[in-house]
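User: Okay, second chain of the day. Same drill as before: sequence in, structure tokens out.
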Amino acid sequence: RFGGLHRWLVANSDLYTWKMMERGVPGIDDLTTLESKGRVFDGEKFPPETALPFERNVITIAEHVTAHSGEFMLVTLPYDPESERSGSHGVHRIGIVDHNRILRELTAVLACMLVDLDALARRRPDWIEKEFEDLVHVTPVGNQMKAAVIARHLIDNWEPLSDLESASREPLPEQD
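Assistant: Same drill. Structure tokens below.
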């Protein structure tokens, strides 16, 4: 978007930078968003290719963690399905559904754990629905509820913690 000469002038000339600023400061969207070629959202769904960067990013993060001998899990995002509290976030809700689907599919591909908070919220709406502040953000109590589900999943399914939990059930050795 900005050529080498422009970048050099901005870095080396206060006068040039000042004159450029008179036109208005470019926002983050101006510098990071590419114009779409054609229609991206048809009112009901996104084209499948719009989710490819999300999928690629998750895979890249997983590869990085694995390359550094780490383990990871994927967690879906629960959202408030009630439109009166969600406002006009239909497009965002559809994107969340797509991304949650991708996370579920990647679980098998990446051979990792999945905590499906979204599925839990759909099966048991009473679990967290009162804690939503907007489409995806929850109260501190809601965050604690999500953390408790994730912790329970780790304790039940992650070998280092499940070994630790079974060890903690054994009686402590006698103290002399």
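The CA atoms of residues 11 and 80 lie 46 Å apart.

User: Thanks, on to the next one.
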